[in-house]
Structures are given as structure tokens and as C-alpha cells.
Amino acid sequence: MSDAVVELIRQCTMGRRPRVGVVLGSGWGGLIELLHDAVSLPYADLPGFPSTRVPGHEGALWLGRVGATEVAVMSGRQHAYETGEVTGMKLPLKVLRDLGCEALVLTNAAGSLRPDMPPGSLMALEDHLNLPQRSPLVGEEGAGRFVGMSHAYDPDWRSQAQRLAAARGLSLFQGVYAWCLGPQFETPAEIRMCRFLGAHAVGMSTVPETIWARYLGMRVLALSLITNMAAGLSAEQLSHAHTLAQAQAVSSDASGLLADILASC
To answer: pTM of the entire structure?
Structure first.
């Protein structure tokens, strides 16, 4: 099916060949306004692309340009908590790779486990904890499924992102992201466990996409927009509406940095 979708996208976009793929999470949608010569294709028009039922996730594929870099931007993703499966992003990411994307930027909104990384902060993932121990590679055949994850998040690309953040006067933390299945938020006890295991932020996405992208041979950069302190670390009441509101407050800085990263590729 992926070949047919790739051909459909090329027909609709005059044969554009993006070099970098992007998956936009909550708070990162401002990147769309920074695209040049952009074409939008609703997921509903692309066979095999996920329906998005989460507020804040548009459900469209954008092909455009940031600086001289041709990009393919997924505005919205399917989360494992929507279906119970971790395979919802397999075909879309394979389509991005087959369109020409050799690199992938994943973005998300996350809760902080660090007192010195408050809401409004940005964090580049240097590693992750796959707490549900679920993998999109289950069912794949051959030796390629045994993907090394020692450098799942490209260290050189992460260093470049830090330099670009500093040029903007922004701090870009580096840390370990703990993936929890959701959709419920974590308990204070679960957050204490995550901190004990070495996590610095927690969220409900990104890790399945990273595993699949590495299987496809794509280098990965992942960025978290910190929207709240995790359960038990503050008195705030957590909700998805709260996450969206906090993300919107710092969306401009996050999207501007993301545009700089893409333009430098």
C-alpha cells in the first residue's frame, strides 16, 4: 500500500521530494505557518494514514520548504492509547521514508520530572524508557528487526539543536523521556518510579515512532515541549485541556526553534 500512497502524494504535490520528515505534537503546530510553498493533504485522502481523534492534532500531511530544506510534516499522529496498538504510525513513516526523508524530527508535549525544568521549557531526548515494553517491530521478519537503540536519538543532530537554541536565547535541556501508554495521566507513585529509573520527562507518544524510524534507517531527533510538572510534583490539576493551553503559551518559541533546525539540515 505504501507505494500507491507515495505515488498519490507525488501526483498531488508535483513530484516534491522531501528530505526531512516531521511529526508535530501538541504545541508544535506553529511550524505550519513557517512553511513556504506548502501543499496540504488531509489524512482522510491518504489510504492507511490514521484518523486523529485527539484535540490539537489536525490530521493533515504538509509538504513544503523551510529555508532550502524540503520537508514533509505530519500535523497530528495516532497514539497507542487510541487503539491499544503501537502500529498506527508504521505506514505513514514508511511513506515519508519512501518519499525521500532520510531523517525524522519527532515532537511532543511532556510533563517534567525535574524541578529545574519548569513548564515552558524545551528538552531534546537523549534516550528513552519504553515502560509498556511495546514495539511496532513485533511481527516483522528477518535480522533487521533486532535494531540497536544505543544511539536512537542522533547525538550530532542534538548538539546542533542546542547550538541553534542558544542562538535564539533559549535553553534546550537534554534528558531521558519515559513513555507511558495512557490515556490516563500517571500517578504520583508512577512518577516516583520514573524518577528512580532516571527519567526527566514523561509522555504518551514518540517512542514507538522512534523504534520504527530507526528500523527504517532514519536518523532521529526528538523534542519535548514541557507543559506541566508531573503528578505529585506540583498542586496543578492535570488535564488534556491544561496541556493544550500550556503548549500554546510557548508554541512560538518551540516552532521557531524547530524551523531553525529544519533550515539547517
So the answer is: 0.93
